[in-house]
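Model: You mentioned two targets. I'll fold them one after the other.
Researcher: Yes, keep them separate.
Model: Target one:
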Amino acid sequence: MDNPSLFDQLPAYALGALSEEERAEVEAFLASSEEARAELRTYEAMLAGMATLVPARKAPAHLTEDFRKRLAATAFPAAPAIAQPRIQSRRQWNRRTPLLLGLAALVAVAIGVFLIARLVVSDPEAQAIQNILNNPAAIRVTLNAQQGATGNVSFVALPDSKVGVLVAELPQLPDEKQYQLWLLNGKNPDSAGVFSTTQPIRQVLVNLPGPPGDYQAVAITVEPRGGSPGPTSAPIFVGTLTQ
Protein backbone atom coordinates (compact mmCIF):
# COMPACT_ATOMS: atom_id res chain seq x y z
CA MET A 1 0.00 0.00 0.00
CA ASP A 2 1.21 3.50 -0.78
CA ASN A 3 1.34 6.36 1.71
CA PRO A 4 -1.92 8.08 0.63
CA SER A 5 -3.85 4.83 1.17
CA LEU A 6 -2.33 4.41 4.61
CA PHE A 7 -3.13 8.01 5.51
CA ASP A 8 -6.73 7.30 4.49
CA GLN A 9 -6.82 4.40 6.96
CA LEU A 10 -5.92 6.58 9.98
CA PRO A 11 -9.52 7.59 10.91
CA ALA A 12 -10.62 3.94 10.83
CA TYR A 13 -7.55 3.00 12.87
CA ALA A 14 -8.44 5.62 15.51
CA LEU A 15 -11.96 4.15 15.68
CA GLY A 16 -10.60 0.60 16.03
CA ALA A 17 -12.41 -0.42 12.85
CA LEU A 18 -9.59 -2.14 10.92
CA SER A 19 -8.89 -5.83 10.43
CA GLU A 20 -5.83 -7.44 11.99
CA GLU A 21 -3.92 -7.24 8.68
CA GLU A 22 -4.83 -3.62 8.04
CA ARG A 23 -4.00 -2.59 11.59
CA ALA A 24 -0.55 -4.20 11.29
CA GLU A 25 0.10 -2.30 8.05
CA VAL A 26 -0.95 1.03 9.58
CA GLU A 27 1.13 0.46 12.72
CA ALA A 28 4.20 -0.27 10.59
CA PHE A 29 3.53 2.94 8.68
CA LEU A 30 3.13 4.90 11.93
CA ALA A 31 6.47 3.61 13.18
CA SER A 32 8.22 5.14 10.16
CA SER A 33 6.26 8.39 9.65
CA GLU A 34 6.14 11.31 12.11
CA GLU A 35 3.57 13.05 9.88
CA ALA A 36 1.25 10.04 10.17
CA ARG A 37 1.69 9.94 13.95
CA ALA A 38 0.82 13.64 14.18
CA GLU A 39 -2.33 13.15 12.11
CA LEU A 40 -3.35 10.17 14.24
CA ARG A 41 -2.95 12.27 17.39
CA THR A 42 -5.33 14.82 15.84
CA TYR A 43 -8.00 12.16 15.22
CA GLU A 44 -7.57 10.73 18.72
CA ALA A 45 -7.90 14.19 20.28
CA MET A 46 -11.14 14.79 18.34
CA LEU A 47 -12.60 11.50 19.51
CA ALA A 48 -11.55 12.19 23.11
CA GLY A 49 -13.20 15.62 22.98
CA MET A 50 -16.45 14.14 21.68
CA ALA A 51 -16.45 11.56 24.44
CA THR A 52 -16.46 14.25 27.14
CA LEU A 53 -19.73 15.72 25.84
CA VAL A 54 -21.90 12.74 26.76
CA PRO A 55 -22.20 10.75 30.02
CA ALA A 56 -19.86 7.77 30.14
CA ARG A 57 -21.62 4.42 30.01
CA LYS A 58 -20.18 0.95 29.84
CA ALA A 59 -20.73 -0.55 26.40
CA PRO A 60 -22.25 -4.05 26.13
CA ALA A 61 -19.60 -6.76 26.03
CA HIS A 62 -20.71 -7.92 22.59
CA LEU A 63 -20.62 -4.46 20.96
CA THR A 64 -16.99 -4.46 19.75
CA GLU A 65 -17.16 -7.98 18.33
CA ASP A 66 -20.52 -7.33 16.61
CA PHE A 67 -19.17 -4.11 15.09
CA ARG A 68 -16.10 -5.89 13.72
CA LYS A 69 -18.28 -8.64 12.24
CA ARG A 70 -20.46 -6.06 10.48
CA LEU A 71 -17.36 -4.38 9.08
CA ALA A 72 -15.97 -7.70 7.89
CA ALA A 73 -19.28 -8.48 6.17
CA THR A 74 -18.99 -5.33 4.06
CA ALA A 75 -15.51 -6.16 2.70
CA PHE A 76 -14.98 -7.69 -0.75
CA PRO A 77 -14.02 -11.39 -0.95
CA ALA A 78 -10.29 -12.10 -1.06
CA ALA A 79 -8.78 -11.19 -4.43
CA PRO A 80 -6.94 -13.70 -6.65
CA ALA A 81 -3.18 -13.90 -6.22
CA ILE A 82 -2.61 -11.82 -9.36
CA ALA A 83 -4.65 -8.87 -8.08
CA GLN A 84 -2.89 -5.68 -7.02
CA PRO A 85 -2.88 -5.42 -3.18
CA ARG A 86 -3.16 -1.62 -3.10
CA ILE A 87 -6.28 -1.58 -5.33
CA GLN A 88 -7.93 -4.23 -3.15
CA SER A 89 -7.30 -2.18 0.03
CA ARG A 90 -8.70 0.98 -1.48
CA ARG A 91 -11.88 -0.83 -2.51
CA GLN A 92 -12.30 -2.22 1.01
CA TRP A 93 -11.90 1.28 2.46
CA ASN A 94 -14.43 2.71 -0.02
CA ARG A 95 -16.95 0.08 1.05
CA ARG A 96 -16.45 0.96 4.72
CA THR A 97 -16.65 4.72 4.27
CA PRO A 98 -20.51 4.87 4.35
CA LEU A 99 -20.57 2.78 7.53
CA LEU A 100 -18.04 5.02 9.27
CA LEU A 101 -19.86 8.17 8.10
CA GLY A 102 -23.13 6.74 9.42
CA LEU A 103 -21.48 6.01 12.78
CA ALA A 104 -20.17 9.59 12.95
CA ALA A 105 -23.66 10.95 12.15
CA LEU A 106 -25.20 8.88 14.95
CA VAL A 107 -22.61 10.20 17.42
CA ALA A 108 -23.33 13.79 16.33
CA VAL A 109 -27.09 13.32 16.78
CA ALA A 110 -26.60 11.78 20.23
CA ILE A 111 -24.42 14.71 21.29
CA GLY A 112 -26.99 17.22 20.01
CA VAL A 113 -29.86 15.53 21.89
CA PHE A 114 -27.78 15.43 25.07
CA LEU A 115 -26.86 19.13 24.85
CA ILE A 116 -30.46 20.18 24.23
CA ALA A 117 -31.71 18.08 27.14
CA ARG A 118 -29.01 19.48 29.41
CA LEU A 119 -29.94 23.05 28.40
CA VAL A 120 -33.62 22.50 29.23
CA VAL A 121 -32.89 20.85 32.58
CA SER A 122 -30.37 23.54 33.57
CA ASP A 123 -32.84 26.43 33.00
CA PRO A 124 -35.32 26.29 35.92
CA GLU A 125 -36.78 29.71 35.05
CA ALA A 126 -37.81 28.55 31.57
CA GLN A 127 -39.32 25.41 33.09
CA ALA A 128 -41.27 27.46 35.66
CA ILE A 129 -42.64 29.70 32.88
CA GLN A 130 -43.84 26.70 30.86
CA ASN A 131 -45.45 25.13 33.95
CA ILE A 132 -47.52 28.28 34.52
CA LEU A 133 -48.43 28.83 30.86
CA ASN A 134 -49.53 25.20 30.42
CA ASN A 135 -51.60 25.03 33.63
CA PRO A 136 -55.34 24.98 32.77
CA ALA A 137 -56.19 26.55 36.15
CA ALA A 138 -54.15 29.69 35.45
CA ILE A 139 -55.73 33.16 35.30
CA ARG A 140 -55.14 34.73 31.88
CA VAL A 141 -55.51 38.45 31.27
CA THR A 142 -55.04 40.36 28.03
CA LEU A 143 -53.84 43.93 28.65
CA ASN A 144 -55.35 46.66 26.48
CA ALA A 145 -53.15 49.32 24.89
CA GLN A 146 -53.63 52.89 26.16
CA GLN A 147 -52.91 56.27 24.57
CA GLY A 148 -51.82 54.91 21.22
CA ALA A 149 -49.33 52.39 22.64
CA THR A 150 -48.29 49.57 20.30
CA GLY A 151 -47.67 45.93 21.12
CA ASN A 152 -49.39 42.92 22.69
CA VAL A 153 -49.25 41.96 26.37
CA SER A 154 -50.85 39.17 28.40
CA PHE A 155 -50.52 38.21 32.06
CA VAL A 156 -50.79 34.62 33.33
CA ALA A 157 -50.74 33.48 36.98
CA LEU A 158 -52.09 30.74 39.21
CA PRO A 159 -54.87 31.85 41.60
CA ASP A 160 -53.00 31.12 44.85
CA SER A 161 -49.45 31.75 43.64
CA LYS A 162 -47.12 34.71 44.00
CA VAL A 163 -45.39 33.97 40.70
CA GLY A 164 -46.71 34.93 37.29
CA VAL A 165 -45.68 35.22 33.66
CA LEU A 166 -45.84 38.33 31.50
CA VAL A 167 -45.86 37.61 27.76
CA ALA A 168 -44.92 40.90 26.10
CA GLU A 169 -44.44 41.98 22.52
CA LEU A 170 -43.34 45.59 23.02
CA PRO A 171 -41.04 48.13 21.34
CA GLN A 172 -37.50 48.29 22.68
CA LEU A 173 -36.92 51.28 24.99
CA PRO A 174 -33.88 53.55 25.25
CA ASP A 175 -31.19 52.28 27.63
CA GLU A 176 -32.23 54.72 30.37
CA LYS A 177 -35.85 53.41 30.40
CA GLN A 178 -37.57 50.16 31.41
CA TYR A 179 -41.10 48.81 31.55
CA GLN A 180 -42.57 48.34 35.04
CA LEU A 181 -45.44 46.02 35.97
CA TRP A 182 -48.01 47.09 38.59
CA LEU A 183 -50.81 45.30 40.44
CA LEU A 184 -53.73 47.51 41.56
CA ASN A 185 -56.25 46.90 44.33
CA GLY A 186 -57.85 50.33 44.68
CA LYS A 187 -55.02 51.66 46.85
CA ASN A 188 -51.45 52.46 45.96
CA PRO A 189 -50.19 50.28 43.08
CA ASP A 190 -47.79 47.48 44.07
CA SER A 191 -44.74 46.96 41.86
CA ALA A 192 -44.20 43.49 40.38
CA GLY A 193 -40.81 44.31 38.85
CA VAL A 194 -39.18 45.92 35.84
CA PHE A 195 -38.17 44.40 32.52
CA SER A 196 -36.70 45.27 29.14
CA THR A 197 -37.52 43.88 25.70
CA THR A 198 -34.45 42.56 23.90
CA GLN A 199 -36.35 40.19 21.61
CA PRO A 200 -39.63 40.35 19.63
CA ILE A 201 -41.65 38.35 22.19
CA ARG A 202 -40.46 38.25 25.78
CA GLN A 203 -41.71 35.82 28.45
CA VAL A 204 -40.91 37.29 31.87
CA LEU A 205 -41.20 35.38 35.14
CA VAL A 206 -42.40 37.92 37.75
CA ASN A 207 -42.61 37.72 41.54
CA LEU A 208 -45.96 39.12 42.68
CA PRO A 209 -46.44 41.10 45.91
CA GLY A 210 -49.50 38.92 46.60
CA PRO A 211 -51.77 36.34 44.94
CA PRO A 212 -53.75 37.61 41.93
CA GLY A 213 -57.00 37.34 43.89
CA ASP A 214 -55.90 40.28 46.08
CA TYR A 215 -55.93 42.65 43.08
CA GLN A 216 -58.41 44.01 40.58
CA ALA A 217 -56.15 45.11 37.73
CA VAL A 218 -52.67 44.88 36.23
CA ALA A 219 -50.87 47.69 34.37
CA ILE A 220 -47.58 48.61 32.71
CA THR A 221 -45.82 51.98 32.71
CA VAL A 222 -42.53 53.26 31.30
CA GLU A 223 -40.14 54.21 34.12
CA PRO A 224 -36.48 55.19 34.58
CA ARG A 225 -34.11 52.21 34.47
CA GLY A 226 -34.34 50.28 37.73
CA GLY A 227 -37.98 51.22 38.31
CA SER A 228 -39.83 53.69 40.50
CA PRO A 229 -41.49 53.41 43.97
CA GLY A 230 -44.72 54.53 42.30
CA PRO A 231 -45.83 55.16 38.69
CA THR A 232 -44.37 58.34 37.22
CA SER A 233 -46.31 58.15 33.95
CA ALA A 234 -49.75 57.09 32.74
CA PRO A 235 -50.10 53.36 32.07
CA ILE A 236 -49.58 52.22 28.49
CA PHE A 237 -51.29 48.83 29.03
CA VAL A 238 -54.07 47.90 31.49
CA GLY A 239 -55.94 44.66 32.13
CA THR A 240 -58.68 43.58 34.57
CA LEU A 241 -58.04 40.58 36.79
CA THR A 242 -60.94 38.13 36.87
CA GLN A 243 -61.23 34.85 38.74
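Model: Target two:
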Amino acid sequence: MSSSVSSETHMEAGRATESDTVPGPILLLGAPGGGKGTQAKELVKIWHIPQISTGDLLRGNVAQGTNLGKMAKEIMARGELVPDSLVDEMVAARLLEPDTARGYILDGFPRTLGQAHWLDGRLGAQIESLPVVAISIQVNYNQLLRRITGRRNCPVCQTIYNIYMHPSQREGICDVEGAELVQRADDTEEVFKERMRAYEALTAPVVEHYRTQGRFAEVDGDRPIPEIAAGIVAAVERLRKAA
Protein backbone atom coordinates (compact mmCIF):
# COMPACT_ATOMS: atom_id res chain seq x y z
CA MET A 1 0.00 0.00 0.00
CA SER A 2 1.22 3.49 -0.75
CA SER A 3 2.08 5.87 2.03
CA SER A 4 -0.44 8.55 2.81
CA VAL A 5 0.58 12.15 3.23
CA SER A 6 0.82 13.43 6.78
CA SER A 7 -1.08 16.58 7.64
CA GLU A 8 1.88 17.77 9.70
CA THR A 9 3.88 20.18 7.58
CA HIS A 10 5.35 23.63 7.57
CA MET A 11 2.41 25.64 6.27
CA GLU A 12 1.78 29.32 6.09
CA ALA A 13 -1.41 30.35 4.32
CA GLY A 14 -1.28 27.04 2.43
CA ARG A 15 2.37 27.53 1.45
CA ALA A 16 5.37 25.46 2.48
CA THR A 17 8.01 27.43 4.35
CA GLU A 18 11.62 26.49 4.99
CA SER A 19 12.00 23.11 6.65
CA ASP A 20 14.58 22.13 9.29
CA THR A 21 14.59 18.54 8.05
CA VAL A 22 17.72 17.47 6.17
CA PRO A 23 15.99 16.34 2.98
CA GLY A 24 18.66 14.02 1.58
CA PRO A 25 18.19 12.56 -1.90
CA ILE A 26 14.64 12.93 -3.23
CA LEU A 27 13.32 11.26 -6.35
CA LEU A 28 10.33 13.09 -7.82
CA LEU A 29 8.05 10.94 -9.94
CA GLY A 30 5.20 12.22 -12.06
CA ALA A 31 3.45 11.49 -15.34
CA PRO A 32 3.90 13.81 -18.35
CA GLY A 33 2.13 17.07 -17.54
CA GLY A 34 1.99 16.27 -13.83
CA GLY A 35 3.98 19.31 -12.71
CA LYS A 36 7.15 17.51 -11.63
CA GLY A 37 9.44 20.22 -12.98
CA THR A 38 7.42 22.97 -11.32
CA GLN A 39 7.54 21.20 -7.96
CA ALA A 40 11.27 20.58 -8.26
CA LYS A 41 11.79 24.34 -8.52
CA GLU A 42 9.57 24.89 -5.46
CA LEU A 43 11.61 22.42 -3.42
CA VAL A 44 14.87 24.07 -4.50
CA LYS A 45 13.58 27.31 -2.95
CA ILE A 46 12.37 25.59 0.23
CA TRP A 47 15.44 23.45 0.96
CA HIS A 48 18.19 25.27 -1.00
CA ILE A 49 19.35 22.04 -2.57
CA PRO A 50 20.07 21.45 -6.26
CA GLN A 51 17.81 19.89 -8.86
CA ILE A 52 19.78 17.26 -10.76
CA SER A 53 18.37 16.56 -14.20
CA THR A 54 19.95 13.84 -16.31
CA GLY A 55 19.01 15.79 -19.42
CA ASP A 56 20.86 18.85 -18.12
CA LEU A 57 23.85 16.70 -17.10
CA LEU A 58 24.04 15.14 -20.54
CA ARG A 59 23.82 18.47 -22.36
CA GLY A 60 26.31 20.06 -19.96
CA ASN A 61 28.90 17.32 -20.40
CA VAL A 62 28.57 17.49 -24.17
CA ALA A 63 28.82 21.28 -24.22
CA GLN A 64 31.85 21.31 -21.91
CA GLY A 65 33.62 18.60 -23.88
CA THR A 66 34.25 16.36 -20.86
CA ASN A 67 35.43 12.81 -21.47
CA LEU A 68 31.95 11.55 -20.61
CA GLY A 69 30.42 14.18 -22.88
CA LYS A 70 32.62 13.16 -25.80
CA MET A 71 31.60 9.54 -25.41
CA ALA A 72 27.92 10.50 -25.21
CA LYS A 73 28.22 12.73 -28.28
CA GLU A 74 29.72 9.91 -30.34
CA ILE A 75 26.95 7.54 -29.27
CA MET A 76 24.19 10.05 -30.08
CA ALA A 77 25.80 10.84 -33.43
CA ARG A 78 25.29 7.18 -34.34
CA GLY A 79 21.61 7.54 -33.47
CA GLU A 80 21.93 5.32 -30.42
CA LEU A 81 20.64 5.84 -26.88
CA VAL A 82 23.16 6.82 -24.22
CA PRO A 83 23.54 3.68 -22.03
CA ASP A 84 22.67 3.62 -18.34
CA SER A 85 26.31 3.06 -17.41
CA LEU A 86 27.37 6.37 -18.95
CA VAL A 87 24.46 8.26 -17.34
CA ASP A 88 25.38 6.64 -14.01
CA GLU A 89 28.93 8.02 -14.30
CA MET A 90 27.63 11.52 -15.01
CA VAL A 91 25.35 11.35 -11.97
CA ALA A 92 28.19 10.00 -9.81
CA ALA A 93 30.41 12.93 -10.80
CA ARG A 94 27.63 15.45 -10.08
CA LEU A 95 26.95 14.00 -6.62
CA LEU A 96 30.54 14.70 -5.60
CA GLU A 97 29.95 18.46 -5.81
CA PRO A 98 29.61 20.24 -2.44
CA ASP A 99 26.11 21.62 -3.02
CA THR A 100 24.68 18.09 -2.70
CA ALA A 101 25.78 17.66 0.94
CA ARG A 102 22.30 18.21 2.46
CA GLY A 103 20.40 16.59 -0.39
CA TYR A 104 19.24 17.01 -3.94
CA ILE A 105 16.21 16.52 -6.15
CA LEU A 106 16.58 13.82 -8.78
CA ASP A 107 14.81 14.58 -12.04
CA GLY A 108 14.77 11.79 -14.62
CA PHE A 109 16.98 9.46 -12.58
CA PRO A 110 16.71 6.66 -11.68
CA ARG A 111 14.48 5.78 -14.63
CA THR A 112 15.02 2.03 -14.43
CA LEU A 113 15.25 -0.56 -11.67
CA GLY A 114 18.91 -1.10 -12.53
CA GLN A 115 19.67 2.57 -11.96
CA ALA A 116 17.76 2.49 -8.65
CA HIS A 117 19.92 -0.43 -7.44
CA TRP A 118 23.06 1.36 -8.60
CA LEU A 119 22.11 4.52 -6.71
CA ASP A 120 21.24 2.60 -3.54
CA GLY A 121 24.58 0.83 -3.69
CA ARG A 122 26.52 4.04 -4.22
CA LEU A 123 24.78 5.88 -1.37
CA GLY A 124 25.01 2.85 0.91
CA ALA A 125 28.78 2.93 0.56
CA GLN A 126 28.95 6.49 1.90
CA ILE A 127 29.11 7.12 5.64
CA GLU A 128 26.13 9.11 6.97
CA SER A 129 24.49 9.20 3.55
CA LEU A 130 20.69 9.19 3.63
CA PRO A 131 18.82 6.78 1.32
CA VAL A 132 16.67 8.00 -1.53
CA VAL A 133 12.99 8.65 -0.84
CA ALA A 134 10.61 8.65 -3.80
CA ILE A 135 7.59 10.96 -4.01
CA SER A 136 5.00 10.46 -6.73
CA ILE A 137 2.81 13.40 -7.79
CA GLN A 138 -0.60 11.98 -8.63
CA VAL A 139 -2.88 13.70 -11.14
CA ASN A 140 -6.07 12.34 -12.71
CA TYR A 141 -5.54 10.95 -16.22
CA ASN A 142 -8.18 13.17 -17.80
CA GLN A 143 -6.69 16.24 -16.12
CA LEU A 144 -3.26 15.32 -17.49
CA LEU A 145 -4.75 14.89 -20.94
CA ARG A 146 -6.34 18.35 -20.78
CA ARG A 147 -3.08 19.91 -19.62
CA ILE A 148 -1.16 18.41 -22.54
CA THR A 149 -3.63 18.57 -25.42
CA GLY A 150 -4.94 21.99 -24.39
CA ARG A 151 -1.54 23.70 -24.54
CA ARG A 152 -1.07 26.47 -27.09
CA ASN A 153 2.10 28.53 -27.53
CA CYS A 154 2.73 31.99 -28.94
CA PRO A 155 5.50 31.63 -31.56
CA VAL A 156 6.66 35.21 -30.90
CA CYS A 157 6.79 35.70 -27.09
CA GLN A 158 6.55 32.00 -26.13
CA THR A 159 3.64 32.63 -23.74
CA ILE A 160 1.86 29.36 -22.96
CA TYR A 161 -1.94 29.15 -22.81
CA ASN A 162 -4.34 26.30 -22.26
CA ILE A 163 -7.69 26.26 -24.05
CA TYR A 164 -9.31 24.50 -21.07
CA MET A 165 -7.68 26.14 -18.05
CA HIS A 166 -5.96 29.33 -19.16
CA PRO A 167 -7.33 30.43 -22.55
CA SER A 168 -6.35 33.59 -24.37
CA GLN A 169 -8.91 36.43 -24.42
CA ARG A 170 -9.46 35.96 -28.16
CA GLU A 171 -9.65 32.33 -29.21
CA GLY A 172 -6.41 31.21 -30.83
CA ILE A 173 -4.72 34.64 -30.55
CA CYS A 174 -1.93 35.67 -28.14
CA ASP A 175 -3.00 38.39 -25.71
CA VAL A 176 0.47 39.98 -25.83
CA GLU A 177 1.58 39.78 -29.45
CA GLY A 178 -1.66 39.23 -31.32
CA ALA A 179 0.00 36.30 -33.08
CA GLU A 180 -1.83 33.10 -33.94
CA LEU A 181 -1.24 30.45 -31.29
CA VAL A 182 0.21 27.09 -32.28
CA GLN A 183 0.04 23.58 -30.86
CA ARG A 184 3.23 21.55 -30.57
CA ALA A 185 3.28 18.46 -32.74
CA ASP A 186 3.73 16.20 -29.71
CA ASP A 187 0.86 17.73 -27.71
CA THR A 188 -1.69 15.34 -29.19
CA GLU A 189 -3.73 12.63 -27.50
CA GLU A 190 -1.99 9.87 -29.49
CA VAL A 191 1.49 11.01 -28.47
CA PHE A 192 0.37 11.53 -24.88
CA LYS A 193 -0.99 7.97 -24.65
CA GLU A 194 2.31 6.59 -25.93
CA ARG A 195 4.29 8.70 -23.47
CA MET A 196 2.06 7.47 -20.63
CA ARG A 197 2.58 3.84 -21.62
CA ALA A 198 6.35 4.33 -21.69
CA TYR A 199 6.33 6.20 -18.38
CA GLU A 200 4.27 3.55 -16.62
CA ALA A 201 6.39 0.69 -17.98
CA LEU A 202 9.63 2.33 -16.81
CA THR A 203 8.36 3.69 -13.52
CA ALA A 204 6.33 0.76 -12.15
CA PRO A 205 9.38 -1.33 -11.09
CA VAL A 206 11.09 1.75 -9.61
CA VAL A 207 7.98 2.62 -7.58
CA GLU A 208 7.67 -0.94 -6.30
CA HIS A 209 11.36 -0.94 -5.33
CA TYR A 210 10.97 2.09 -3.06
CA ARG A 211 7.49 1.16 -1.86
CA THR A 212 8.58 -2.24 -0.51
CA GLN A 213 11.36 -0.52 1.45
CA GLY A 214 9.05 2.06 3.01
CA ARG A 215 10.66 4.90 1.09
CA PHE A 216 7.73 5.89 -1.11
CA ALA A 217 4.78 8.28 -0.77
CA GLU A 218 2.14 9.81 -3.03
CA VAL A 219 0.84 13.38 -2.99
CA ASP A 220 -2.22 14.86 -4.65
CA GLY A 221 -0.99 16.90 -7.62
CA ASP A 222 -4.38 18.34 -8.56
CA ARG A 223 -4.11 21.29 -6.16
CA PRO A 224 -2.49 24.75 -6.15
CA ILE A 225 1.30 24.67 -6.56
CA PRO A 226 2.13 25.79 -2.98
CA GLU A 227 -0.16 23.16 -1.48
CA ILE A 228 1.47 20.40 -3.53
CA ALA A 229 4.90 21.57 -2.40
CA ALA A 230 3.75 21.55 1.22
CA GLY A 231 2.46 18.00 0.75
CA ILE A 232 5.82 16.88 -0.63
CA VAL A 233 7.67 18.49 2.30
CA ALA A 234 5.34 16.71 4.75
CA ALA A 235 5.85 13.38 3.02
CA VAL A 236 9.64 13.70 3.01
CA GLU A 237 9.70 14.71 6.70
CA ARG A 238 7.52 11.75 7.65
CA LEU A 239 9.61 9.26 5.65
CA ARG A 240 12.84 10.59 7.16
CA LYS A 241 11.46 10.30 10.71
CA ALA A 242 10.30 6.74 10.04
CA ALA A 243 13.66 5.65 8.63
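Researcher: Noted. Anything on target two?
Model: The two ends are 17 Å apart (CA to CA).
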